[in-house]
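Design job #97: recover the sequence.
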């Protein structure tokens, strides 16, 4: 289970979670863990209601077998158990779109995940908040395996040191990011970087 996390809303976490899930060669679950501000289902164009069968809704735009699991409508209590159930019930890679911030709702998916990928824009405030998210993940014992800098062609100097992990890819700015060829290439690079890791 790979948590897609960052300190600020609007950093590109949801787009990265869905873009990565679509770029993975093989079955993938993209799970929305943001119960307060859920939008993964809307970005993917699937219903917010839970599916009648299976774990999630088939992603209509995915070239591979990607399913989208909307955030639960109730409060985040029980979210950790739900994430653990999804991890145990499937052999697919589970990509989790995490809430922003430093509250308990942001900590739960970091604690359940096997690894964390940080997402931030190139602005100093966003990167500082991503570094705080990295510290939260490490505090609960979950390794941070890389960073993604969105809306940028190159990562600012020193980002690897600030985050304590390598920047795996940068994602260029685009009006319709998931339909943009440059953005899709960036997520394919990211997919290759996580492909040889355990699909837990």
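Job complete. Output follows.
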């Amino acid at each position: 289970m790979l948590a897609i996390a960052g300190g600020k809303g609007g950093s590109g976490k949801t787009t990265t979670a869905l873009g990565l899930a679509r770029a993975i060669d093989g079955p993938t679950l993209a799970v929305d863990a943001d119960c307060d501000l859920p939008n993964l289902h809307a970005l993917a164009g699937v219903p917010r209601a839970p599916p009648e069968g299976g774990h999630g809704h088939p992603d209509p735009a995915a070239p591979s077998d990607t399913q989208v699991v909307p955030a639960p409508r109730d409060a985040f209590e029980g979210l950790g158990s739900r994430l653990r159930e999804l991890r145990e019930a499937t052999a697919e890679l589970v990509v989790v779109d995490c809430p922003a911030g430093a509250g308990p709702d942001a900590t739960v998916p970091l604690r359940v995940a096997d690894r964390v990928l940080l997402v931030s824009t190139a602005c100093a405030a966003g990167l500082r908040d991503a570094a705080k998210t990295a510290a939260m993940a490490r505090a609960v014992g979950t390794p941070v395996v890389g960073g993604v800098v969105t809306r940028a062609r190159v990562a600012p100097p020193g980002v690897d040191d600030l985050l304590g992990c390598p920047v795996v890819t940068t994602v260029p700015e685009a009006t319709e990011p998931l339909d943009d060829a440059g953005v899709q290439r960036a997520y394919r690079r990211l997919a290759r970087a996580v492909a040889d890791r355990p699909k837990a």
